[in-house]
Amino acid sequence: MRSMEKITDVEEIIRLLNEDFAHEIENTMIYVRNSFIIKPCDPSRVTESISVDEMRHMWWLADLIVKQGGKPSMEHSELEFGGDDLRSQLERQIELETEAIERYKQHIELIDDTEVVGVLKHILDEEKRHRKEFRMRLAQLDE
Fold it and tell me: Would the pTM of this model clear 0.90, i.e. be above it?
């Protein structure tokens, strides 16, 4: 396996952090919207709680971006909510968390900055917990 060259260029680190930031914006908006339209129940409350975690991730990433001399980009992709039923929303949310986990793992491998990597590892741990929470709620639908 070929070892990857670590990224030390500040502009490239800012670009990667802005990529993460944009995905956190998207996930926050998707989870907030889904928590509003899911009838009040455990999965809607969990989705709401995780949306707050995603907002906190945005704050941490924005802080890193500014410390590196950049500006957080508010641009994001068109949002895909996963439909209007609980099952499809949970499936979409699991998909989003899985994508985030893979992206953070890749960025942790690529970036050569101790502070940035430390924050990304913390976010990665939370994303893994989020996916587990959503998977548990999805499994409960089949019981």
Answer: yes
